[in-house]
Amino acid sequence: MNAIESRLEQRGVTLKRFDTPLQQAEQLAAAVVERLNMAIAERGQASLALSGGRSPVRFLDALARQAIDWSRVRLTLVDERWVPESDAQSNAALLRSRLAAVFPRLQWLPLYRGVTPAADAAQVDAQLADWLPLDLVVLGMGVDGHTASLFPHAEGVAEWLNGNCDAGCVASRAADGTPRLTLTGRALHSARFRLLAISGDAKLRTLCTAVEADQPARWPISAFVQAPMDIYYCPEDGQPDDAPV
Ligand SMILES: O=C1O[C@H](COP(=O)(O)O)[C@@H](O)[C@H](O)[C@H]1O
């Protein structure tokens, strides 16, 4: 076992390595469905929060192929760019297009509402309260160590990373200052299970640094790398040909 695996083991987290992006995507989709089916069997429905960005395309395509009672699944995002779905940056648009085969059957809670970032976050927060604890959260991570839209050293981030944060959804900003909406520690820590998907050497190095440093305000991902969580890692960061750029 190498250094990162043993560090993660101390936190009760398992790192699963995959040789190809396709294997990683398919195994991640299978793990999601297993968790959703467990929740449906126990409580009659399942709640899921997914990440956006560039990385999840293959995973979303694999998820859309899964046979599960999608009408019992409540879906939201862990974060959103404050843009309408017509914008290429929209995480909601990514989910709607890659999950097109199952999307009409899901119960969908969008983050962007088009009022103001703060008003949208307050509206989502009120609706999300009924969904907590989420059954499953699938996180991604940027090379800078951000996860969801919880960015290093952002104003408010130390509080938002905390499980006792007042709100489950807040208005945040990306490193370039653009407005975002993000779930906070209140929603992400209380999830019954978390999966983290990362690809490429650079992200694995970030994860190692984040876990080693354990300074959540600098490396927001480190706040969530704790049980219950599995990490799905592939050294290759390949996107399918039809992935949005
Ligand atoms: O801004 C975002 O970044 C992270 C990582 O995105 P990726 O493009 O490197 O995959 C993502 O998890 C988050 O949902 C997204 O809005």
UniProtKB/TrEMBL annotation:
Parts forming coiled coils: none
GO molecular-function terms, A-Z: 6-phosphogluconolactonase activity
Reactions catalysed, as given in the entry: 6-phospho-D-glucono-1,5-lactone + H2O = 6-phospho-D-gluconate + H(+)
Keyword RNA-binding (UniProt): no
One Pfam family hit: Glucosamine_iso
Enzyme class, UniProt record, top EC level: hydrolase
Keyword line: Hydrolase
GO biological process: carbohydrate metabolic process; pentose-phosphate shunt
Pathway membership: Carbohydrate degradation; pentose phosphate pathway; D-ribulose 5-phosphate from D-glucose 6-phosphate (oxidative stage): step 2/3
Boundaries of every Glucosamine/galactosamine-6-phosphate isomerase domain copy: 23-224
EC nos: 3.1.1.31
Keyword Cytoplasm: no
Entry's family note: Belongs to the glucosamine/galactosamine-6-phosphate isomerase family. 6-phosphogluconolactonase subfamily.
NCBIfam families given in the database record: pgl (TIGR01198)
Function: Hydrolysis of 6-phosphogluconolactone to 6-phosphogluconate.
Name assigned to this protein: 6-phosphogluconolactonase
Organism of origin: Halopseudomonas aestusnigri
